[in-house]
């Protein structure tokens, strides 16, 4: 019984029931894109993202940034998803109605004590294999490897809390 209490006390603050709340607020992100066939860089995206609460178990994610292609071209990039906590899972949807599921994550602590999750999504014939890592520093990483007849790339995105944004209580132990 005593060991169970110690295990509970030592659990990281990123447990599933607190993960969505820990994401609320403003983030700076940096993304690199690489062609998986040639291994050549495609480009980078730098920008800002936010998680805005929608009720007690959902948040609207919005990102805006500047894409710089390896060949020098630039353009604005944006994206939007809806995150929903469903029991121990964190579900990511393409739409607010939660009709089109992108990923269903079941966060778990890995052998190194880091909170991680992974998921796959088939988009017609292209497969998105994705990993999520929630860092002790309070930031997080999302990596997508997309393979198929239409797409073949790796996207690696690092998110860091904006200085001065103390929206969440995501201090890691």
Question: Would you write up a description of this structure?
Answer:
- The radius of gyration is 17 Å and the shape is globular.
- Strand 4 (74-86) and strand 5 form a beta hairpin.
- It contains 2 helices and 11 strands.
- The model is unreliable at 1-14 and 169-173 (pLDDT under 50).
- It has helices at 2-10, 16-23, and strands at 25-35, 41-53, 58-69, 74-86, 89-93, 101-105, 108-109, 115-123, 126-134, 140-147, 152-161.
- Helix content is 10%, strand content 56%.
- The chain is mainly beta and 173 residues long.
How are the SSEs placed, and which strands pair?
Elements: H1 2-10, H2 16-23, E1 25-35, E2 41-53, E3 58-69, E4 74-86, E5 89-93, E6 101-105, E7 108-109, E8 115-123, E9 126-134, E10 140-147, E11 152-161
Antiparallel strand pairs: 1-2, 1-11, 2-3, 3-4, 4-5, 5-6, 7-8, 8-9, 9-10, 10-11
Mean pLDDT: 86
**Shape, per Cα inertia axes:** globular
Biggest beta-sheet profile: 11 strands, antiparallel
Query: Share of helix among residues?
Result: under 10%
Which consecutive residue ranges, at least 5 long each, have pLDDT under 50?
1-14, 169-173
User: In which order are the strands of the major sheet placed?
Assistant: 6-5-4-3-2-1-11-10-9-8-7
- Secondary-structure-derived class: mainly beta
Number of helices: 2
SSE order: HHEEEEEEEEEEE
By DSSP, the count of extended strands is: 11
Radius of gyration from CA coordinates: 17 Å
Distance from first to last alpha carbon: 23 Å
Beta-strand portion reads: over 45%
Provide keyphrases for this structure.
173 residues; mainly beta; 11-stranded antiparallel β-sheet; 11 strands; 56% strand; disordered C terminus
């Amino acid at each position: 019984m005593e060991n169970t209490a110690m295990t509970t006390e030592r659990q990281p603050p990123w447990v599933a029931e607190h993960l969505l709340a820990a994401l609320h607020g403003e983030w700076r992100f940096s993304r690199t894109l690489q062609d998986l066939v040639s291994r050549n860089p495609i480009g980078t995206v730098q920008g800002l993202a936010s998680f805005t609460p929608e009720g007690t178990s959902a948040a609207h994610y919005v990102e805006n940034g500047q894409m710089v292609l390896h060949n020098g071209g630039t353009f604005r990039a944006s994206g939007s998803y809806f995150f929903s906590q469903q029991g121990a899972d964190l579900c990511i949807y393409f739409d607010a109605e939660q009709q089109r599921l992108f990923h269903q994550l079941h966060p778990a602590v890995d052998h190194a004590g880091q909170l991680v999750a992974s998921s796959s999504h088939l988009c017609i014939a292209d497969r998105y294999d994705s990993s999520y890592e929630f860092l002790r520093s309070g930031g997080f990483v999302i990596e997508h490897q997309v393979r198929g007849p239409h797409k073949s790339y790796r996207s690696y995105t690092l998110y860091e809390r904006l200085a001065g944004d103390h929206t969440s209580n995501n201090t890691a132990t």
